[in-house]
Write a structure and sequence with these properties.
By secondary structure, the chain is α+β, with helices and mostly antiparallel strands.
Length: about 375
Amino acid sequence: MASWFNTVTSLADDLVTGFLDENNNTSSTSTPSHEYDEYTQTWLDAEGEKSTDNPLIEGSLSTGDLRFTHMMDCGNFSDAAMSHELKVRGKTYIDDRVKVQSPGAVSTLVGFEIFEVDIEDGAHTSGSGNSSRYDHIASKGLMKQRIEAVKRLQDPPFLFILNFQIPGDPPVSLVATFALPRNMTEPLQDDTDDMRAFKHLWSQYIDLPRTEDERLSKWEDATCDSQKVEAKSPPTGMLQAWGGPADISWPDPSEPGSLPYDDFRHSRFKLIPAMKNAPWVVLAAVRNVPVILGHKLVQRYFRGDNYIETDVDVASSVIALNIVALCRNYAKHIDVECAVVLQGESEHELPEKILAAISLPFIDIEKRRTLFMN
């Protein structure tokens, strides 16, 4: 499979010469005039005094203009919460397989940034340096400062953070942050059918183990076909029963954020892509079909007081690695729209409602920044 993609990529490079923009942009960093003091957990202004401002975020969720500030301009990304044309499972999908237009996403896009991964800054390494990654990026550097900034808002929302860990030279993290009301786990009398179904699924999704002991106990208790899963690499028979592809490098239970193979989140986190414009070689490799990512590659999950983070480890799958490497080469010529849905699989979990949606037209991977500004 890898050799096939290498051959196709090489052929495409020859055929599309002259089509690509070969400008060699260098990475740069837009540094805020304020600094976050880790010791006092307060913001300092340019003179080193305690600041009353909130320099990394502006607006509010209630007015629909909540947004991170001082972001790197990596392209004309936008919130696709209302503009998307993606369909989800309808109320009667179990019986008729009919999909319907979702009336909008639950969350609002707050920011999108590309961070260059630096091994010296505590990145996790596996294999070559090109596969290094930032796990739990919300706990590190600038992203940690942004999370703290959100906490300081008068009515702080809950955040859904999506961290796509992309291998390459250099490896990068594509981080999208979405905000939604904190009461999304509380049933209300006037909830619509899709909102009731969403809250039911969302409550389970964010209910992560809060300690390492609780997380490891998930592995000890996990079963597949009524058999105990060993707290090591899964046996081949279990993988076949679960339906996991053999090209994935499964994590060891000791890795923070990893959960058993039959975990609820792995089987419900669904990505719906819509490739609007791209070179033919990318269109041939990427299908516009929904995919349960946790069945195709490794995902890790992290929870904070006001957020949940889902890390998507592209390097864990040979097939995904080759497809994403192809897309990375042509990123500035790809217009794609993506939505995240928690898949409904029974009548009381339907109709589905989109959790988050983002439009990424022609993003520039070269317009990345460092996670640790100071």
